[in-house]
Amino acid sequence: MAAAQKYMQVSVWRGDEATGALEEFDVPAQESQTILDVVSWIQQNADATLAYRYACRVGMCGSCAMMVNGKPRWTCRTHVKKVLGDNGRLTIEPLRNLPVIKDLATDMTEFFDKWIAAEGVFHPTKTRYDEIEGIDPESSVRVEANAAIECINCAVCYAACDVVSANPDYFGPAALNRAWSLVNDTRDGGQAARLEAVSSNGGCHNCHSQQGCSTFCPNELNPTLSIAGLKRETVTSLFRRRS
């Protein structure tokens, strides 16, 4: 006789930011089941109106990030057995620190706007008609740049950041991490504007170095270290101008 199907209780955020609430679902427990599998099962079998976002399912795009039992995670790479509470329950909510569009889908507009505000945009110094500039991969600045470039814009660090929660103007770890990678890119011509931007009210000096961004980054980046680099560079730049 086949074993009885086991179920788990899953609480999922439904609705918008102001009027939404958690809704309960009984979801079949499966082997090697991810959180995204759970969300997909609910949408396909229990409530077709559930809104959420995903794309690659293999940890490359970052679009499936959500809060799972109060922590920001990629749901496609998070296995249920690793995060299931002692009470056998799951709580799945939209990423915090971002406006909720509906259910588990958040509006990423302000996240990307802060990238631009932090001058996380490459400013070329050459055209396509110029010779390609040679870059020494072992140089100290290139090593610093390489350490920060694997960010895929999932906003897990943004959701993990308590400073963002307290100060909505703060650019956040991802934008500042990107700015640091460009500070160390010798091909970039926008350094003066970038250092001014990351020194502003929303910039790097707001960071309290609590390491939440580094703790939860699925790609094991260290935005706190990048922000520390920006703090040093902005202060050094200030003294250079005054000398």
From TrEMBL:
Keywords annotated in UniProt: 4Fe-4S, Iron, Iron-sulfur, Metal-binding, Oxidoreductase
Keyword Protein biosynthesis: no
Pfam families, per database record: Fer2_3, Fer4_17
Start and end residues of each 2Fe-2S ferredoxin-type domain: 8-98
GO MF term (any one): succinate dehydrogenase (quinone) activity
Entry EC number(s): 1.3.5.1
Record GO biological process: respiratory electron transport chain; tricarboxylic acid cycle
PROSITE patterns on file: 2FE2S_FER_1, 2FE2S_FER_2
Pathway annotation: Carbohydrate metabolism; tricarboxylic acid cycle; fumarate from succinate (bacterial route): step 1/1
PANTHER family xref list: SUCCINATE DEHYDROGENASE [UBIQUINONE] IRON-SULFUR SUBUNIT, MITOCHONDRIAL, SUCCINATE DEHYDROGENASE IRON-SULFUR PROTEIN
Assembly description: Part of an enzyme complex containing four subunits: a flavoprotein, an iron-sulfur, cytochrome b-556, and a hydrophobic anchor protein.
Family classification: Belongs to the succinate dehydrogenase/fumarate reductase iron-sulfur protein family.
The protein's name: Succinate dehydrogenase iron-sulfur subunit
